[in-house]
Design goal:
There is one protein chain. The chain is α+β, with helices and mostly antiparallel strands. The chain contains 18 helices and 22 strands. The protein folds into three domains: 171 residues, FAD/NAD(P)-binding domain (3-Layer(bba) Sandwich); 116 residues, protoporphyrinogen ix oxidase, domain 3, CATH 1.10.3110; 110 residues, Protoporphyrinogen oxidase, mitochondrial, domain 2 (Polyamine Oxidase, Chain A, domain 2, Alpha-Beta Complex).
């Protein structure tokens, strides 16, 4: 079986790695990976500057999703896995140029401790009252839109009010998706909350019930002998996991495991045709027919390539919206800064009218990746509402970040900071898929069209999870399916998307 992989980001690399494993194990297959850029890894890229790790794209992955950590261990990077410094994890929301910490007991968007919420300056009195009364929220009955998708903003506002959207949903989702809570799908982005609403009515009651269930399954709920055995092997998991030397380590380790002759850089695929013998792939004049195709490019690229094969599929893929992002890294000597507030950094609601979406205090979030005496700030700009910033020169973006850091953190911290020791800017146009309202239905339509095109698999952040672990999971899953097909497995056992 001959397999083409289009796209050398983490999803495409994960697929290639799985196929290489199968080939080395004796499977009758060969693969070719085509990447338009001159490097592999997509948005995963990092550099070590004067001992400090600077991430150009994602800096870590969610620990609770195992696919990324499992792959790192398989590649021999287990000792390089670095948990986030959760002992100092604290996040602020910028409200009228003031840093206001998220109240204790807030589980993503759901307040579970009424006293800290009641005392928090993040919310007005009317919103606090509404949050308390939310405990009485009834389940949505059939006929009340319970089976229809809606935006995250609509879900949150119905339970907690418009201020909760402004001060919680918008900044949190903007920091994760670079998106707009009024456009993102509640069923795709917050499926657990949708399920809790249908079961409990109140999101707060639902989250408290889930928390009780987790505690019941925890080591503390078992006997002393069980606890001692588990305590020896288990520690509380950090929220995030990074690689000590940067996410580039994962890209490099994967690349080293692949057959060099199967990797084609600076080789954009310009056309795809369905041929009686398989799939005809044209990569800048290099034309070959493959038995199967793993499209690991952004959905809008996949749409352009597949439109001539299936116009309905192409239209569905083209309809998936994307946002752009910019990261700006600044390194300072800590001696020139005033004392920073505790925590990992801050989020900026769109209502503040700023260019920055968020800023991470990198030297706090992951210990050991920044030399002693240095501070690294990683700012995020762009998003759905600020695409125009992509056209600004690096100097202008750096100036914006420095000005807004000084305005938000104050002269006491940045008044004597002067020029940063090092700056680095990365642009990621149309890199982050947006799961808009109706996303699940669109995925069903896409899966139905793909099922009529034998050998085609779509992987990446546009379909079933935007994070690094999700992309790895989908890439490896597609490759395993193709390896099974090469070994004669029944086609109906293979997932089309």
């Amino acid at each position: 079986m001959r397999i083409a992989i289009i796209g050398g980001g983490i999803a495409g690399l994960a697929a290639a790695f799985e196929l290489e494993k199968a080939r080395a194990g004796g499977a009758d297959l060969e693969y070719a990976l085509f990447e338009a850029r001159d490097r592999l890894g997509g948005s995963l890229a990092s550099q070590i500057v004067d001992g400090a790790v600077l991430e150009f794209g994602p800096d870590s992955f969610l620990t609770e999703k195992p696919a990324a950590a499992e792959l790192c261990r398989e590649l021999g990077l287990g000792s390089e896995l670095l948990p986030s410094n959760d002992a100092q994890r604290k996040t602020y929301i910028v409200v009228h140029n003031r840093l206001v910490s998220l109240p204790d007991g807030l589980m993503f968007l759901v307040p579970t401790k009424l006293v800290p919420t009641a005392l928090s300056p993040l919310f007005s009195l009317s919103t606090k009252v509404r949050m308390g009364l939310e405990l009485l929220h009834p389940p949505r009955r059939a006929g009340q839109g319970s089976n229809e998708d809606e935006s995250v903003a609509a879900l949150v506002e119905r339970h907690y009010g418009a201020e909760a959207v402004d001060h919680l949903a918008d900044p949190l989702l903007s920091g994760i998706y670079g998106g707009d809570a009024s456009q993102l799908s509640a069923r795709s982005v917050l499926p657990r909350l949708v399920e809790m609403e249908s079961r409990y009515g109140s999101l707060t009651r639902g989250m408290l019930a889930a928390h009780r269930q987790m505690r019941a399954r925890s080591p503390e709920s078992t006997g002393p002998a069980d606890r001692s055995r588990r305590d020896a092997t288990q520690a509380p998991r950090a929220l995030f996991t990074a690689l000590r030397g940067g996410m580039q380590q994962l890209v490099d380790a994967l690349s080293a495991r692949l057959d060099a002759g199967s990797i084609h850089l600076s080789a954009p695929v310009t056309a795809i045709e369905k041929d009686p013998g398989g799939w005809r792939v044209d990569a800048g004049g290099f034309v070959r027919i493959y038995d199967a195709l793993v499209v690991a490019s952004p959905a809008w690229v996949a749409a352009a390539l597949l439109n001539s094969v299936d116009s309905e599929l192409g239209a569905e893929l083209a309809a998936i919206p994307y946002s752009s992002s910019i990261t700006v890294n600044l390194i300072y000597d800590e001696a020139r800064l005033g004392p920073l507030p505790d925590g990992f950094g801050f989020l900026v609601p769109p209502s503040e009218g700023r260019s920055m979406l968020a800023c991470t205090f990198v030297h706090r979030k992951f210990l050991g990746r920044t030399p002693p005496g240095k501070a690294v700030f990683r700012a995020f700009l762009g998003g759905m509402k600020n695409e125009a910033l992509l056209g600004e020169p690096d100097s202008a973006l750096i100036a914006i970040v420095r000005r807004e850091l000084r305005e938000i953190l104050g002269d006491r911290i940045f008044g004597q900071a002067g020029e940063p020791d090092c700056t680095q800017v990365s642009r990621w146009p149309r890199a982050m898929a947006q799961y808009s309202v109706g996303h699940k239905r669109r995925m069903e339509h896409i899966a139905a069209r793909v099922s009529t095109l034998p050998g085609l698999h779509l992987v990446g952040n546009a379909y079933d999870g935007i994070g690094i672990p999700d992309c790895i999971r989908l890439g490896r899953q597609a490759a395993r399916s193709l390896a099974l097909a090469a070994a004669g497995a029944e086609p109906e056992l293979l997932r089309p998307v």
